[in-house]
Predict the structure.
Amino acid sequence: MYIVISIFVTLALIIDFSIGNLPLELFKSPLNIIILLSISFYIYIISNNKNKYQYILRIGSLKGVISIFVLFIIFILLSIFLPSTFSTHSWTFTSIILLLIVSLTILIIKQATLILNEIQHTKRWSHQHSIIVHLGILITIASLLFGSADSSTLYHQSITNIPDNICLTTKGKKETLPFYLISDNIKIIGTSSNIMDYIAEFRTIDKDSTITKHTSRPNHPAHFDGYDIYISDFKTSDFSDSKQITYIINKSPWKYVTYFGIILSIIGLLILFIRK
């Protein structure tokens, strides 16, 4: 088991030092779906050939999952304290996540087999409830990895009463939104020296010329056409009634899959707590 993990991670390290970080385009739709289906098919093949792939199947034990998860946590900590050396966009980090996905999937298949056998013979399900937690963690991690390239963060600078759909990416490149955004006003709650909160009022105009009104506050975004629109900053001028408002616009198509995985993990933990 440890040999398989070591070989996989070592190969990823060699790739990192030879060609650099992983290109995120590798997980852009529909390629991410194809990779996910290919991994699923590969796991199905090895699960049905236990004798031939017994060394690989060992990473699907609880011990194997814990070992890879510890490796995952260690790399996260290293990326926080040594970001220039250990990147979350590296081949090494991706290989660890893929190992965790494979090991969790194999473990879930084993647990599901035991549950089905128990139900078949006793007509009830009395143990292996941790499968719900494992399934939730698997869905969450898989959605974060395979949805990473489909997610985007844009910065939009809006002048009140002027429609605009041009944004900047995190790399400074221009990108056009599929709708126009018009800032109407910004309400400031508090005093000039102690701002408690601020609320941006704006409209969106889609391709069918439908106008929709929205409000956005820090940490309370507006939602439109699959985008989350946060107010980031604003500037006022003593010489003009116009205000410049900066929005952060996020798009995460896989976010509901991630939410489902997190909720499933919480439900599984509650069930385990109640059963004990």
